[in-house]
Amino acid sequence: MLFNYEAVDSTGAPKTGSIDAVNTDIAIASLQRRGLTLTAIHEADVPSSFLSMNLSIFDHVSSKDVVILSRQLSTLFEAQVSALRIFRLLGSETENQVLAKKLTEVADDLQSGNSISAALAKHPKVFDEFYISMVKAGEESGKLPQTFQYLADYIDRTYELSSKVKGALIYPAFIVVTFFTVMILMFTMVIPKISDILVENGGDIPSYTRVVMGISNFLVNYGFVLLIVVIIVGFFVVRFVRTPAGHMAFDRLKISIPYVSGLYKRLYMSRMSDNLSTMLSSGIPMVRALELTSTVVNNRVYQDIIVNAVEEVKGGKTLSDSLSSNPGEIPGIMVQMIKVGEETGESGAILKTMARFYAREVETAVDSLVSLIEPLMIVLLGGGVAVLLASVLIPIYSIASSQ
């Protein structure tokens, strides 16, 4: 990373120039060793090429990489290797070059005197706020090996559950895309030719066949206009969803659609329970655990519920009492189990049990949804094509029979 600086030397003469360093702290330290007193330093504006912009798309650290890293950190801390040596070692051995660079920068920050959590916090795209808070709690409690093991297990569970839900939606999405592609090809390429045959013969055309012919003519003549309208509408819908009001509306829709809402609610309950359990087990206070959970639950409706719970818990109310005022989003069993945990002092263990319970519920719901959607989509695809063909082939058969 290139930095431009302004400084004065030991004689008071002004100096300007640039220096290449991993981060600002390293650049300042290097310049001070040269006997310079800095007056200003900032990152140089380096023009980015088209190629570098394209390559930056692939700069990604996956959840799998973070899981492996966390397990390695846990093992090395357990072996009582120094933090600086650990990050230097992993930075040189990690295959992912983006992660390797980040780890090297973390090691440089540690060498400059920063704590592990502070060094990791400089890379929010790799280590989120939840991760940083867990590491900070591990530093304060002296349980870094256990903390990194908790993190590895948590990220692994979260990734597996999210992947299962996303994977379950791939096949239905493929069927839907195939259905619309086949129908569009039929309406724009097959139906027009058959329509010409029917019109040339001058016979009586059934009303349902005229409807199909009308749709076909519209798509042939105005399909491009329709495509433009769909793109424009899609653009504005995406923009609306990215606004706070649109994001809230979309998140509320997800937990309102029949059957699908049950899957999403279980997913959010699993995520919420797992987050709270992991943080409480690591010694993070309830209020801070709730604040972090609100940022990672990934649904504005549940985020507002948790934020409200934070304020009420600060005011002396129990978490179970606060959540009980949202029966539509928080199931009664969840409230009762949290209440048992509060009364017994085993909130972490209770929430861990609930996390496992809802994870199994999500898997069951996904399997049921897929088993229902697959045959339904196949029937709709086959039925749609069959009705379309029948509407034009029946009149042709009638014409052939009358001749």
CATH superfamily of the largest domain: Type II secretion system (T2SS), domain F
Shape category: extended
Structural class, please?
Answer: mainly alpha
SSE order, one letter for each helix or strand: EEHEHHHHHHHHHHHHHHH
Termini gap? 83 Å
Can you summarize the main beta sheet?
Answer: 3 strands, antiparallel
Total tally of structural domains:
3
pLDDT averaged over residues: 82
CATH class of the largest domain: Mainly Alpha
Classify the helix fraction into a percent range: over 70%
Fill in the keyword field for this structure:
75% helix; 16 helices; 403 residues; 3 strands; 3 domains; three-stranded antiparallel β-sheet; extended; Receptor-associated Protein; single chain; mainly alpha
Describe this structure in words.
The chain is mostly helical and 403 residues long. It folds into three domains: 45 residues; 94 residues, Receptor-associated Protein (Up-down Bundle), CATH 1.20.81; 237 residues, Up-down Bundle (Receptor-associated Protein). It contains 16 helices and three strands. The protein has a three-stranded antiparallel β-sheet, with helices on one face. Helix 11 runs antiparallel to helix 16.
Layout of strands and helices, then pairs:
Layout (H helix, E strand, L loop, with lengths): L1 E7 L5 E7 L3 H10 L3 E7 L6 H6 L7 H16 L4 H11 L3 H15 L4 H6 L7 H13 L2 H58 L5 H36 L1 H11 L5 H22 L4 H11 L3 H15 L4 H5 L8 H13 L2 H56 L1
Antiparallel strand pairs: 1-2, 1-3
Helix pairs in contact: 3-4, 3-8, 4-5, 7-8, 8-9, 8-11, 8-16, 9-10, 11-12, 11-16, 12-13, 15-16
